[in-house]
User: Fold GNAT family N-acetyltransferase from Paenibacillus faecis.
Amino acid sequence: MSDIIWTRLSQMRDAEALMELDKLVWEENTSPTPIVWKSREHYLQKCPPGTQLIAGVGDRICGYVGFDYPTPLESNRHVYELNIAVHPDYQGRGIGRTLMEAIKEMAAERGVRKLCLRVLASNPGGLAFYKKCGFVEQGRLVEEFWIGGRYVDDILMWCPVAGH
Assistant:
């Protein structure tokens, strides 16, 4: 089996694999609440094809980075808000880094100047990963969530897109 990581935009046929990935990744240290998809149709309404870059090895989808404008305002079209998930079995193998490099390249091609994301303070691995990818803290919502019997900060991060 090849260890070459590929990326492409999501397609309709990826829905089930991406829904399963969400079940594995989004838990109380990585999300304020579990992500539960009622159906394939529900998933596709919220995450239509082409709104995620997916990465894989061989024929297996190993991760994704979702991207969208933070608001519907025309004045906010230079920003992508991201969410990223990597299958637990593939973490530490370069999937996340490959996805971040691919989204930065795609954003630059589309004229996007800024990438932003949110990460819970209870996710130190995610926070360290984002910093390695060039993201810096731009704000913090202190004690924003009550998760697992404790208050958790929501950290807002951003990264400029090269060439802008």
